[in-house]
Amino acid sequence: MQTENKSWSFFFVPQSNILEDERQRRFVLTDASVSVSSASPYYRTKLRGLYTTAKADAEAECSILRHALDKIAEIKSLLEERRIAAKMAGVYSDGDPPRKTMRRGVLMTLLQQSAMTLPLWIGKPGESPPPLCGATPASSDYVAKQGDKVAARVKTTDGDEQWILAEVVSYNHGTNKYEVDDIDEEGKERHTLSRRRIIPLPQWKANSETDPEALFSKDQLVLALYPQTTCFYRALIHTPPHRPQDDYSVLFEDTSYADGYSPPLNVAQRYVVACKENKKK
């Protein structure tokens, strides 16, 4: 009997009052077929108390978790500030030797890590996902900050235009133009672009279980980062994420296939943004 009491205390009740509360807890756990209305006033009162306690415990735990998430966000922000400061010091220090270009494999690993560590939006009951959560666009007056990753439409050496993954260097409020660095060149190629040529990347992952409206839907046209590259291409959503940790499955436009689309490929939420051009190329 001693072992049984310890089991109940571990899973359901505090250390005190174990024997006193065991009977009504058995009623709650094993007599689920009995409706609350058919229970005696005593059990209804006890059940109400249990629900109230459980609700308070859940709210306290939720508050602690949110506080922890806020602290993690603060730490990530500080690390990002240090990274930007180190980068700017390297760019503008004439005495230092030129930096080596980052190896391709290292860059791809960093991009994958950035996608995996993108925080999941966890809103309060009834709270809508904010801008830049999943497919939710930024507000019309939004200005990306220094160090933010964006999709940038640039001209290539042969005169064509291409969407690339870039990092914001600065924004000029007088000209309404960004300066961005091509992420693939480690800051060696800089572009000055108007706001319409910049699409901010998501800052939170959308939870498919609680906020499915914040995800792109099946057959929706998007720009997605092609795997193992730093370029965005037009694609159709094949399958949205089913779970918070899942990626999108997309079909890239590809004329080498009979139907004009590639087989399904996985792309993280971090690297899928809305496509403003509806006409297929």
UniProtKB/TrEMBL annotation:
GO biological process: regulation of cell division
Keyword list, A-Z: Coiled coil, Nucleus, Transcription, Transcription regulation
This protein's GO CC annotations: ATAC complex; nucleus; SAGA complex
Gene3D superfamilies on file: 2.30.30.140
UniProt xrefs under InterPro entries: SGF29 (IPR037802), SGF29_tudor-like_dom (IPR010750), Tudor_SGF29_rpt1 (IPR047288), Tudor_SGF29_rpt2 (IPR047287)
Protein source organism: Cynoglossus semilaevis
Segments traversing the membrane: none
Highest taxon above the source species: Eukaryota
Location in the cell: Nucleus
Name assigned to this protein: SAGA-associated factor 29
Leader sequence segment: none
Residue stretches making up the SGF29 C-terminal domain: 140-281
Database matches in Pfam families: SGF29_Tudor (PF07039)
